[in-house]
Amino acid sequence: MINILTPVSQGDGVVLKAPLSGYILPIEQVPDPVFAQKMVGDGISIDPISNVLIAPCDGEIIQIHPSYHALTLKTPEGLEVLMHIGLNTVTLRGEGFQPKVKMGDRIQTGDPLIEFDIDYVALNAKSLLTQIVITNSDQVVDFKTYSGYAIAGENVILELSLIPKVSENIPTSNQIITSDEITIPNPTGLHARPSAVLANLAKKYQSKIRLKRGDQDANVKSVVALMGLEVNHGDRVVLIAQGADAAAAIAELCEAIRSGLGEEGTPPMAAPASIAKLDIAAPPPHRRSDDPNLLLGVAASSGVAVGYSFRVREQEIKVAERGDNPNTERRKLETAIEQAKLEVEALRAKIHSQGDPGKAAIFAAHQELLEDPELMEISTSAIDKGNSAAFAWKQTFTNSAEELAKLHNELLSQRANDVRDVGQRVLRILTGVNSTKPIYPNQTILIAEDLTPSDMATLDRSKVIGFCTVAGGTTSHVAILARSLGIPAIAGTEAQVLDLTDGTPVILDGNKGTLKLNPTSAEMEQVKALQIKIAEKRKADVANGMKPAMTQDGYRMEVVANIGSKIEAETSVQLGGEGVGLLRTEFIFMDRSSAPTEDEQTEIYSSIAQVLGKEKPLIIRTLDVGGDKPLPYLPIPHEENPFLGERGIRVGFDRPEILRTQLRAILRSATSGNLKILFPMIARLEEIKMAKAMLEEEREKLKTPAVSVGIMIEIPAAAMMAEQFAKEVDFFSIGTNDLTQYTLAMDRGHPKLAPFVDGLNPALLKLIDLTVKGANQQGKWVGVCGGIASDSQAIPLLIGLGVKELSVSVPSIPTIKAQIRELSLVQCQELAQKALNAETGAEVRALVEAG
């Protein structure tokens, strides 16, 4: 039942009527700590159903945010009423908002203030919740708030009793302290939230404190005054304090501003040398290898390459700072960006034509960057100040890349390279500078501080056989492309690699993440001979690929494929694959602006099932995306640690229409083959029960036969509860990549920690052992679809632990089947028991080598 508030009569103090129609929420329930903790001030929130913000009382407009999502009016009694439409709406840069008033306007209750596109804001902001806050709440002695449903302009939402006026307490000390100049690091300047944080910090000091920018200044203890300054990213400000505690206030507030006032994604600006702690010396760099001819990095793409180093240097493009008139320069920039979009689209189409839509999505992301409104707004702002388009664009994308690179989230920080790639492309077009393509010698191993996805897409594969970079990691787009192209690569290497003379003989091991310098001719020939031997064995393995994977004592293993497209399914069958153990459905959802329809998905799943035939299994994993790998049409709020946030099935529960559509498509495709459903990121029994219930509801609607259901074991909690989970499902598939990083609490893409993230760590093996035993108790089978399923050292251990299926990378199918045919189940079981009692992953690998 809807509770309609009845208007009340106006008494002493100030009465505010609803500026929007909708449900009233206590300010404490707003999912933003700055508002919920009343750092801006006390008030209420409204979940709106109307789209015109109206005046809740008479007053004067004293502040309008440049993005038009917030304004402040001052009542005749002196109360400052901030109305803030939505959460994180400052990032919309005014899109969807139309102000109806201007600064200084005197308005009456019910006058329209801001009209907004409610659908656009709902889809593009964190929330529509609109806050009505008294920013100088210290002048209110009593807040009377209302709840329920309010009608704009009719129902009272706040009754405020004011405290008696008192004279201002003037600091007894005349000490005046002025700070050094501070550069504002916040991407969107001092909007409501950082201003509130700063004001609250200032209020604990007795001193008068003002923030000065140019010839304007404001009271730091007033949120409204701070926002009225319109302090933007990169602006330089000075703090001035007068009073007994002025020095302490300046010290704390300066540090707070430089660190971004707690705002997410804000890299701190460096302190000036005059106050920097220069006496604390950084530890000297140290080698990570005792062998001066062995450099260590992170294995980014498997394989071994023997060749000669060739240093790639980033092309430095010089630009003129001053330009023509702003209109001309803006047109130059817009034209260059449109040309860049065409070039990126050509690269995307090239990669897509090679049968890998997932990798093509990397360049779809580049197209998104070219349409980024913040990059354009900051650039045009600089152009309006007289800068050339080239200078403004170069400064903008360089600063943005540097900010990204400083983020603690490894995945996000590595995207700085994509910003540089896109930025350099536009800059070359603006300046008319052609991209210099070096002439590579034969057997080139590229050495670079970093490479870009564009570099990878245009490499001369006849000359370049590997690469080594100082920056990057296993999750960078460059590493992903290298793996898809079959180029051995290492990343995160020691910086001294950049000092190598071109033509230095090297052996690059993409499996171990090492670069051997100055090997002897004999060593190089030995590796080349080994490569020839491996190639010959590979040829023999492919010739015998259709033979079953059966150990010498008759134990049958099923070797299936991890795939992401129909083309990979076809290749897997040709190489002897016995089905698909993991269809990554993300490829269907990527490289597009909206979610695929049920019919589109049905057609794709059915076509892959037809490739495999009625007998070979096709295990389809439901959409596995999240904060660490988002989709443009499936916005997920920024998470401090996306690997512990909304991923996999959690996204499906949050967006059930996406999951239900996919489940219906899988069920409709089931008649085309032997389909099974695999749910990712299951941690709790309630989750699989919920997923099965959704599946059953859709099955009943479609009147289709039931399909087998399994879960990914990639969270330690699921392994520990394997027997209980086995009662709910038909099979398990162990995702050892995530299981390893969750067990060891190490990001597998971290350039420093990656060498220690070993899937053969005894802790991992014990979890696999526990999973298999739990499944056996209920008569269910276990497969492994993670990275160690393709690891030759792991295979005998997995067999010995009782795993029934290995789902592996497509190219490795013949080799793995051949290896299994040379093993003995009894010996594998004995080896597995020894490995369970080992102390380290290295010890386990040594056992396998010796066994």
Structure notes:
This protein is of the alpha/beta class and 851 residues long. 36% of the residues lie in helices and 20% in strands. It contains 28 helices and 36 strands. The strands form six sheets. It has an eight-stranded antiparallel beta sheet with strand order 9-5-6-7-11-3-2-13. Strands 20-27-26-22-23-24-25-21 form an eight-stranded mixed beta sheet. The protein has an eight-stranded parallel beta barrel with strand order 29-30-31-32-33-34-35-36, surrounded by six helices. Helix 6 runs antiparallel to helix 7 and helix 7 crosses helix 11.
Quick summary of this structure?
This protein has 28 helices and 36 strands. With 851 residues, it is an alpha/beta fold.
Structural class: alpha/beta
- What is the overall number of helices? 28
Distance between the termini: 72 Å
Major beta sheet, strand line-up: 9-5-6-7-11-3-2-13
Major sheet: 8 strands, antiparallel
- Gross morphology is globular
Instruction: Count the E strands.
Output: 36
User: Mean of residue pLDDT?
Assistant: 82
Strand content: 15-25%
Radius of gyration: 31 Å
Uncertain runs are 1-11, 166-172, 268-287
What is the fold's blueprint, element by element?
Elements lengths: L13 E4 L4 E5 L6 H4 L5 E7 L3 E3 L4 E6 L5 E5 L5 E5 L12 E3 L6 E2 L4 E5 L1 H7 L5 E5 L5 E6 L2 E3 L5 E7 L13 E3 L3 E2 L8 H11 L5 E6 L2 E4 L3 H6 L7 E7 L3 H13 L35 E3 L1 E4 L2 E9 L13 H28 L3 H14 L2 H12 L4 H17 L4 H4 L2 H16 L12 E5 L4 H5 L6 E6 L7 H9 L3 E3 L13 E5 L4 E4 L3 H23 L5 E2 L5 E8 L2 H9 L5 E5 L1 H4 L8 H15 L4 E5 L27 H6 L1 H14 L4 E6 L5 H18 L5 E6 L2 H5 L1 H5 L4 E4 L1 H9 L17 H16 L3 E4 L10 H6 L4 E5 L3 H9 L3 H12 L4 H10 L1
